[in-house]
Amino acid sequence: MYQEIDLDKMDVNAEPPIEEPDRQYYFMAKCREWVREFERKNGRRPFAFTQTFGCQMNARDSEKLEGILEQAGYEKTDREEDADFVIYNTCTVRENANQRVYGRLGYLHSLKKKNPGLKIALCGCMMQEKQVVDKLKKSYRFVNLVFGTHNIFQFAELLNRMQSGDHMVVDTWEDTDQIVEKLPVDRKYSFKSGVNIMFGCNNFCSYCIVPYVRGREKSRRPEEILEEIRRLVADGVVEVMLLGQNVNSYGKNLEEPITFARLLRKAEQIEGLKRIRFMTSHPKDLSDELIQAMADSKKVCRHIHLPLQSGSSRILQAMNRRYTKEQYLALTEKIRRVIPDISITTDIIVGFPGETEEDFEETLDVVRRVRYDSAFTFIYSKRTGTPAAAMENQVPEDVVKKRFDRLLALVQDISRDVSSRYTGQTKEVLAEEVNSQDAALVTGRMDNNLLVHFPGTAADIGKIIPIHLDTCKGFYYMGTKA
Ligand code: SAH
Ligand code: SF4
Ligand code: F3S
How many CB atoms are located within 10 Å of the residue 73 CB? Predict the structure, then answer.
């Protein structure tokens, strides 16, 4: 979180501090000098545009980037074509995420021809891939700054290097065990926030690139997390989303080990905090202690995201998921026994190498039995460097596409049915924004994550309001204040 440092009182001509985060605050002050110079020349401050690809972890990282840009004196813009500085925080979990970035870079190149002063930066997971950085260095020389996930805390320092030179600045690290706390953050929402509890992943699911681009699992110390939540609450936040690739293994490698369930119980005690969410849970590590902590809690939302990936035990083994179909089903039954009203959502991959029609039927079988509130379905994407990419028997594209469509239809059918089970009831809804299509409506979320639209005004935003759920429209409700 933000440190109380007056950047204008900092001596930017002195040697930069060695310690973090002091060093970054020093460079923020330096960037601010550059911005003042820009302002003198142009009569306005420079505009910065941030684009985030990928998961909640990246969204949270972008809030940190924006916090630093704000401290440096940049003005935010939503219009890329007005920007003096553009930064893309990239994702590489599936190939189409990469393609979108290359597509957008073509557009940025055309903007740069019109505005040669435009500076372009790329960071995030894609930048941790050597072949990507090589390609950028060779064919995308108009990019000014490239850095990775491990040194994102150095953004102020790198920004300063970019501002004071004309050459392409490239700095990516292989891994780090460093967690730098207390950097500034510019939150997208005033009333809810993500909170990182851990970084990286040790699971090495055979299809997944995340462990390679995010590095080994590192947990933040519980005191740092709780202190951050307290500060957020003091600043108006009522809902936090605890973030990690596998929150169920949180705390295992800390000097003083602690379980995720214990962390939840501590967070529960923070006064003023109303809702706690978390993401993501790996089924293999989900403990009875966690289920009990959820059941006992008044703040932890009745929702668990429990990625299945495949319903076939044979494929699950090839995926290195370390649970079987039966274990997964038993787990969901246990969760529902202890917390009957819980929403369960999932991620499923179709077309993993070697997946047969029988394997796929097993996936459909799990979907029918668990009856997910919703599911993200993905076509398997080959990621260079992962064990699955080297597997023979990749499934033909047309077969995968047909299976994908069948799965999606089933998932949606069930989801529509399951989602409507609250019709006629009154539920608490956190009002999140004025509806973009109809300004007389406000859109909010129930604790199970379902969306609700109801007549309201901007004054409702950030409040938890009892709403009568009048009708279910498939994946959302229309309601009225109770
Ligand atoms: N740590 C989380 C997932 C992070 S990635 C977990 O283990 O649940 C989010 C989702 O992307 C995964 O759950 C998986 O369904 C999907 N995914 C990851 N790698 C993929 C690949 N190579 N092809 C298709 N989908 C993939
Ligand atoms: Fe990827 Fe598996 Fe780690 Fe999730 S748990 S990030 S799917 S390797
Ligand atoms: Fe993508 Fe990186 Fe998240 S690869 S899904 S942005 S951890």
Answer: 19
Q: If we measure between CA atoms, which residue out of 148, 142, 140, 138 comes closest to residue 170?
A: 148
Q: Does 94 sit in the ligand 1 pocket, CB within 6 Å?
A: yes
Coil, strand or helix at 168:
coil
- Is the CB of 93 within 6 Å of ligand 1? yes
Which tens digits make up the pLDDT trace of 52-63? Answer: 999 999 999 999
Cβ–ligand 2 contact at 279 (below 6 Å): no
Ligand 3 centroid–CA 323 distance in Å is 23
Q: What tokens appear for 378 in the block?
A: 């993905």
How many whole angstroms from 93 Cα to the centroid of ligand 1? 7
Cβ 407 under 6 angstroms from ligand 2:
no
Q: How far is CA 117 from the centre of its chain?
A: 31
Contact 396, 404 (CB under 8 A): no
Q: Are strands 476-481 and 119-124 parallel, antiparallel or unpaired?
A: unpaired
Mutate to test the pocket of ligand 2, among 91, 199, 201 (most ligand atoms within 8 A of CB): 201
Q: Whose CA is nearest to atom 2 of ligand 2?
A: 205
**What is the residue type of 182?**
K
Read off the pLDDT of residues 201-231 as tens digits, 9 standing for 90 and up: 999 999 999 999 999 999 999 999 999 999 9
Amino acid letter, 430: L
